[in-house]
Write a structure and sequence with these properties.
Elements lengths: L2 H8 L14 H6 L15 E7 L5 E7 L1 H5 L3 E5 L25 E2 L5 E7 L2 H8 L3 E6 L6 H6 L10 E4 L2 H7 L2 E9 L12 E5 L5 E5 L4 H12 L6 E5 L14 H14 L3 E3 L3 H7 L6 E9 L5 E13 L5 H10 L9 E10 L13 H19 L3 H8 L22 H11 L2 H14 L3 E14 L8 E8 L5 E5 L8 H13 L6 E3 L2 E2 L14 H28 L6 E4 L2 E4 L2 E4 H10 L5 E7 L4 E3 L4 E3 L3 E14 L5 E10 L7 H19 L31 E6 L25 H12 L16 H13 L1
Parallel strand pairs: 1-12, 10-11, 14-15, 18-19, 28-29
Antiparallel strand pairs: 1-5, 2-4, 2-6, 3-5, 7-15, 8-13, 9-10, 9-12, 11-20, 13-14, 16-27, 17-18, 17-24, 21-22, 22-23, 25-26, 27-28
Helix pairs in contact: 7-8, 10-11, 11-12, 15-16, 19-20
The structure holds ligand MTE, hypoxanthine and dioxothiomolybdenum(VI) ion.
Length: 778
């Protein structure tokens, strides 16, 4: 352990690991937390609305916007021709997403023009008055349609391969082929997308954007307006949820607001309503997985060949890294001796799909769990036994190599699963359920215990860096800024805890300030669950620098050795003297000590060669397990969540209160994905589930009736992460796989567990009923 880390862990019992409330919790519930739409509106503010295509794929033959322009209150109508720079808002430099479509449209709802008006109402009404002539082109909206039409990929796919899978498939005792369909998901953040732009002098523009990635918004605005990044400041204090939906999708609104603001020299706000937000922003990718698996009589998997085809939408966006992450997690927690996994991010004429909590990992992992089910039902065993038989081994064992050739070094899955199995009384309850199902005519129950292992780091190595800026003022209060954004996950609170801990001051002394490109530059998206790992460490680095200067000051001023300077709660001990922290800081100021520092961190160890499919893409893994029990009505397909028990690994928790919130929230969101949330496009390529009336997210009443969540308190990150904690944002989402598997067992009971139910996701009541009917017919 290096000296800097030692300094950190010395204070391990300080504020860093306390279950403090989210700094804004009281403001969230009382309505006083300021979101962008709550910022007092600048004088002369104008409002924007989108003019959207009503074709899935067509050439634009002509556009008559005269009625739009003539509508009372309309100030201007923007088209692609008004873009002074490049008419492109694609993330990652793919150059395939026009801000406003000019010659052709590629999805129903694609923005073609933008209306800027004195009121939001006028802008929205005027936007409907355009007369656009199209020349329709052939289109397809889903994976099957894409495959039938020989659709291109929106970005290149990936292959992971180890051993001799094809040869081994032919040799094995048992072999099964199948297909699984895995649905997409709408983010349904409570705050829809929004951007407010205020023009400044010269080229300057300031943008408030509901984005997880302020640096990319800055970059995109520069690209669209053809101005340098230094002219653009992007601010975000908080989002009302992002869930990945604001990693890239905010670009278009920010760019439009900035474009209009600079053109008109007035402040401009874009705030799509829920239906528009759902129509013009990307979602979780739905997948079709085709698998061919071989295994032995003990249920050990020998070989797997699987293809993951995904609905990419019309442009690349993040489909490449998302489908990559699906492959990285298709092993779930299991060792595959011989394996070949391929991905196909397919082009479809739908909105471009994007990041969503787990980032393809959930889809890959669910595929891996389907394979376990196939093996279990084929052999007539409890799926949990098959899971255990296939877990990665301990270091030194031969069973530690992933399909991407990274060695799993920190494996604790067997312990997590065993502890949960005991604490939730799995064996006895499963026995009782099998007994219950034998005699219950209509209601059937199911129980399943599933593992989670999630790789932490951006697979794009360069994104694993962060910066922070810390000031100490003369009164001993702190100003903290870093590159991460707050979307409800508690990042700001955790990083403030790190600073409070370093100086042993009360956390209230640390002011968390809005993320802004002007203070910390070149940041990564707050994503991949890495916000605390990266920004917590960067803030720690800044704190360390200031602390070193303060210690040097005390050593000189009081003529004591460095180890006689100690930061105690709200005071500093120098030799036998104890000085209140604010007094100490004031003295340092008068001695002209620099009380501000910029910190930086980059994740060590990781590297990834995508073309070769080899490397160490993940710094470490987060683990967890969940056991869910459900009841289904075999006559209607309706079901209830009776109970869920979770044991989850967050290393040494930085804030157990926030972490448990993340685990419960992630689980319920995952449950929604796998049960009631279903996206549906009609024959015209129009998304018909574009409002809560047709798209069903889980309600409070849908949560498991008994819901026990525990942290694996004994766990510490084997790597020197901040406070030895682990990332928590995404991994718990996949605990919900236990719900689908429990539903699957309940369905299987109608055919005496002899047939794998092959329940696809989402397992809506309709789909559960159809599976029951299918199994009854035999
Ligand atoms: N929790 C809340 N309340 N709101 C969110 O938008 N996003 C999730 C997760 N938890 C999200 C959330 C996603 S997709 C990610 S990647 C992480 O939080 C991002 O934050 P972190 O890296 O600070 O954990
Ligand atoms: N996770 C989330 N967002 C990302 C990633 C990732 O692995 N890579 C690029 N953006
Ligand atoms: Mo999270 S999907 O990585 O924003």
């Amino acid at each position: 352990m290096d000296k800097a880390s030692y300094e950190l862990y010395k204070y391990i019992n300080g504020p860093m690991h306390q279950p403090l409330r989210h700094d804004s919790a009281h403001k969230h519930v009382s309505g006083s937390a300021e979101y962008i739409d709550d910022i007092p509106e600048p004088a002369g503010l104008l409002h924007g609305a989108l003019g959207m295509a009503d074709r899935a794929h067509a050439e634009i033959v002509s556009m008559d916007l005269s009625a739009v322009k003539a509508y009372p209150g309309v100030v201007c109508v923007l088209t692609g021709k008004d873009v002074p720079g490049v008419n492109d808002v694609s993330s990652g430099g793919h150059h395939d997403e026009p801000l406003l479509a000019e010659t052709k449209v590629e999805f129903h709802g694609q923005p073609i023009f933008a209306v800027i008006a004195e009121t939001r109402d006028a802008a929205r009404r005027a936007a409907r008055l355009a007369k656009i002539e199209y020349n329709d082109l052939p289109f397809w909206t889903d994976v099957d349609g894409a495959l039938e039409n020989g659709a291109p990929l929106v970005t290149s796919g990936m292959t992971l391969k180890r051993g001799e899978p094809e040869e081994e498939l032919a040799r094995a005792e048992h072999r099964i082929q199948g297909t699984m369909r895995i649905g997409g998901q709408e983010h349904f953040y409570l705050e829809s997308h929004i951007a407010l732009a205020i023009p400044g002098e010269d080229e300057d523009v300031t943008v408030w954007s509901s984005t997880q990635h302020p640096s990319e918004v800055q970059h995109i605005v520069g690209h669209v307006l053809d101005i340098p990044s230094h002219a653009i400041t992007v601010n975000v204090r908080r989002m009302g949820g992002g869930f990945g939906g604001k990693e890239t999708q905010g670009n278009q609104f920010a760019a439009l607001a900035a474009l209009a603001a600079k053109k008109l020299n007035r402040a401009v706000k874009f705030r799509p309503d829920r239906d528009e937000d759902m129509t013009v922003t990307g979602k979780r990718h739905d997948f079709r997985m085709d698998y061919d698996v071989a295994f032995d009589n003990e249920g050990r998997l020998h070989a797997l060949v699987a293809n993951f085809a995904a609905r990419g939408g019309y442009s690349a966006d993040l489909s490449g890294p998302v489908t990559d992450r699906a492959l990285f997690h298709a092993d779930s927690s299991y060792f595959y001796p011989h394996v070949k996994l391929t991905s196909q991010p397919l082009k479809t004429h739908t909105v471009s799909n994007t990041a969503y909590r787990g980032f393809g990992g959930p889809q890959g992992m669910l595929g891996g769990e389907r394979i376990i089910e196939e093996i279990a039902y084929a052999l007539g065993k409890d799926p949990l036994d098959i899971r255990k038989a296939n877990f990665y081994g301990q270091p030194g064992s031969e069973r530690v190599l992933t399909p991407y050739h990274q060695t799993v070094e920190d494996n604790i899955i067997a312990r997590v699963v065993e502890e949960l199995e005991t604490s939730c009384d799995y064996q006895a309850r499963r026995k009782a359920i099998v007994e219950f199902n034998r005699t219950s005519p209509v209601i059937r129950k199911g129980i399943a215990l599933t593992p989670v292992k999630f790789g932490i780091s951006f697979t794009m190595t360069a994104f694993n860096q962060a910066g922070a800026l810390v000031h100490v003022y003369q009164d001993g209060s702190f100003h903290l800024n870093h590159g991460g954004t707050e979307m409800g996950q508690g990042l700001y609170t955790k990083v403030a805890q790190v600073i409070a801990d370093c100086f042993q001051v009360d956390v209230e002394r640390v002011k968390i300030t809005a993320t802004t490109t002007g203070k910390v530059p070149n940041t990564s998206a707050t994503a991949a669950s890495s916000g605390t790992d990266l920004n917590g460490m960067a803030a720690y680095d800044a704190a360390r620098q200031i602390k070193e200067r303060l210690v040097a000051f005390a050593v000189e001023k009081f003529a004591v050795p460095p180890d006689e300077v100690e930061f105690l709660p709200n005071r500093v001990r120098v030799g036998s003297k104890e000085i209140p922290f604010p007094d100490f800081v004031k003295q340092a100021y008068f001695a002209r000590v620099q009380l501000s520092a910029a910190g930086f961190y980059k994740t060590p160890k990781i590297h990834w060669d995508r073309a070769a499919g080899r490397g160490t893409p993940f710094y470490y893994f987060a683990y967890g397990a969940a056991c869910s029990e459900v009841s289904i009505d075999t006559l209607t397909g309706e079901y209830l969540m009776d109970r869920t028990d979770i044991l989850h690994d967050v290393g040494k928790s930085l804030n157990p209160a926030i972490d448990i919130g993340q685990i419960e929230g992630g689980f319920v969101q995952g449950m929604g994905w796998l049960t009631t949330e279903e996206l549906w496009w009609d024959g015209k390529g129009r998304l018909r589930t574009h409002a809560p009336s047709t798209y069903k997210i889980p309600l409070a009443s849908d949560r498991p009736k008994i819901f026990n969540t525990r942290l694996a308190e004994w766990s510490e990150n084997a790597e020197p992460t901040i406070g030895r904690s682990k990332a928590v944002g995404e991994p718990p989402f996949m605990l919900a796989i236990s719900v689908l598997e429990a539903l699957s067992m309940a369905v299987a009971s109608v055919a005496d567990y002899k047939v794998c139910p092959r329940l696809d996701a989402p397992a809506t009541p309709e789909r559960v009923l159809m599976a029951v009917e299918r199994l009854k017919r035999g």
